[in-house]
Design brief:
This protein is an alpha+beta fold. The chain is built from four helices and twelve strands. The strands form three sheets. The chain has a seven-stranded antiparallel beta sheet with strand order 3-2-6-9-10-5-4. A three-stranded antiparallel beta sheet has the order 1-11-12, with no helix packed on it. Strands 7-8 form a two-stranded antiparallel sheet. A hairpin with a 5-residue loop joins strand 11 and strand 12. The chain is globular.
Length: 211
């Protein structure tokens, strides 16, 4: 037996509640941007992923305010065309959640919460010093499909990582079982625990399923 739900018959908030509880886990982009006045903003987004390598594509789903206008992150990116995606480790999870609070426009979450910032190399917005990985990005284009959200497409141009995470010569990545935190739904987050390694087989190595 299976159940079918017609998404076209649900409200937008109902679709959000359902889909974000089903499509899990999702990576978290803790995005730092800078306003034209030089104010640094930090905000988390879990509609995020990497979507290609040539060019290196980063996609963000940027939620709007209730009246349909853009929030600080989107305004800053559209103004300066640059942003940094910081990944979230368990030791900075609570600070990340605090930056999701409804601060007034123009307020700096790093200043309010005492988040350490370090200058980036190829873009103007700083990175979060304690993030295990920070990805410098340049804005490519935006898609506005509704008043609720826009989709930002950016090009990744540089990566900072904590010492020992990336071998610069081989590009081998070793997380040492301290993987980034994943978003589930509502107020739930997950740490990656059990890892299973499975190589993609050749067609002659595959076996049919047995009922």
């Amino acid at each position: 037996m299976s159940n079918h739900i017609d998404l076209d018959k649900l409200t937008a908030s109902e679709r959000y509640k359902l889909l974000t509880a089903l499509v899990i886990p999702r990576p978290i982009a803790w995005v730092t941007t800078v306003s034209s006045e030089g104010i640094t903003n930090a905000a988390p987004y879990s509609f995020f992923n990497v979507f290609g390598q040539d060019p290196a594509i980063i996609i963000l789903g940027l939620e709007h305010k209730a009246d349909g206008t853009a929030k600080d992150t989107e305004n800053n990116i559209n103004t300066l065309n640059e942003f940094v995606v910081n990944l979230v480790s368990s030791d900075i999870l609570e600070k990340m959640v605090q930056t999701a609070a409804a601060y007034a426009p123009g307020e700096s979450e790093p200043d309010i919460l005492g988040l350490s910032l370090t200058s980036s190399k190829k873009v103007k917005p700083p990175r979060l010093t304690n993030a295990p990985v920070s990805i410098e990005c340049e804005r490519m284009m935006s898609l506005s499909l509704s008043r609720e959200r826009s989709i930002l497409i950016g090009r990744a141009v540089g990566v900072f990582s904590k010492d020992g995470l990336i071998n610069a010569e081989t590009l081998h990545v070793d997380w040492e079982n301290n993987y980034p935190i994943a978003r589930l739904f509502a107020d739930r987050y997950a740490e990656i625990g059990s890892i299973k390694r499975l190589s993609i087989p050749t067609p002659d190595q595959t076996q049919p399923n047995e009922d």
